[in-house]
Amino acid sequence: MQLEDIKKLFLRHKENALSHRYITNKHIEPLLEKLPVNFRVETIGKSVLSNPIYSLKIGNGDKRILMWSQMHGNESTTTKALFDLFNTFLSSDSELNYILEACTLFIIPILNPDGALAYTRINANEVDLNRDAQDLTQPESNVLRNVFESFKPHFCYNLHGQRTIFSAGTTSNSATVSFLAPAQDKECTITPNRKIAMEVIDVMNQALQTIIPNQVGVYDDAFNLNCVGDTFQSENVPTILFEAGHFANDYARDITRELIYTSYITSLDYISKNDVIGDQYKSYLDIPENDKCFLDIIIRNARVNGEFVDIGIQFQERLNSNKVEFVPKIEKIEKLKDFFGHKEIDAKGFEVFNASGNPLKLGYENVCVILNNEKILLLSK
């Protein structure tokens, strides 16, 4: 499909009931209830706190694709993009029936409903579900494992979100979208099914490069069998990690949401139309590996306690009255020549104080600082 056509589809079918970063079962349940019968919605299990875990099954094709989102409860961008995708499949004008004729999609929109409700990475037992693939100690882990065994997917989409710290390589380009074809052994062998995953990722990367050039990265493929992606890959099912990251000033992740949607459509289009055998994988190896080169704000050329330094500020995500707020926190007071800020302020050698007029310290949290006798807001209104 042409990217212009995908953008038009997104603008027509974006699910406006889902916005910003806090997405829970309460937000998606009314949307699930409205879906027609060809979206086969089920409750496939319960969380630690007995919240339902929902699934949708769409399509009747021979190519089976398993997708799950919010394994980490505070990573919701990929979930929003899923409901945009559902709306697109519902529409008679989307002309995407060929995907559902070629593929069957089994989708878990929120695997960790307790973590989603609390806006935490972990589940209610304080376990990272993405490190529980072998021990299977948690009910949510067993739900996913049971689906994997019964559905027998040909592809797995492991859908996540990433922090604002990541760069595409050691560059000033934010890793707005990242991927990984996880390893399936300690040697990180490029196996036949990893090649298949790499080929699909390369197709998505080629599309994204025309929209966000040099802002796509891949993660280090160090092997960890406790991770779900590594486990499924080791069982010879091509598995793709999706990571929704940061675009300039897009802390609500609206722009990234569209990019993830574009990645869904691009990959599903490719899988539905091709017998993917992995022979087109090599360009994947040219995608830069993510590094951690970013802070949310850097105040350059500042004085703190008489010393000339840079000040690195990272936003902390806090849930307050069912809304995610961003709290600036000072993470570094040092020369930051190897770091970039999503926003940079030149202090021009002036002393920088906290909001009370006292010297800055590591760990200080506030929405503003004082620079040259002027209050500087660290958050945009």
TrEMBL record:
- InterPro entries per record: Peptidase_M14
What does the entry give for GO biological process? proteolysis
Q: Name one Pfam family in it.
A: Peptidase_M14
Task: Give any GO molecular function from the UniProt entry.
Answer: metallocarboxypeptidase activity
Q: Which GO terms describe its cellular component?
A: extracellular space
Name the UniProt key words of this record, in alphabetical order: Hydrolase, Metalloprotease, Protease, Zinc
Q: Which Gene3D superfamilies match?
A: Zn peptidases
Required cofactor names: Zn(2+)
Q: Where is the Peptidase M14 domain?
A: 14-285
Family the entry assigns: Belongs to the peptidase M14 family.
What is the protein name given in its UniProt record? Peptidase M14
Report the source organism. Algibacter marinivivus
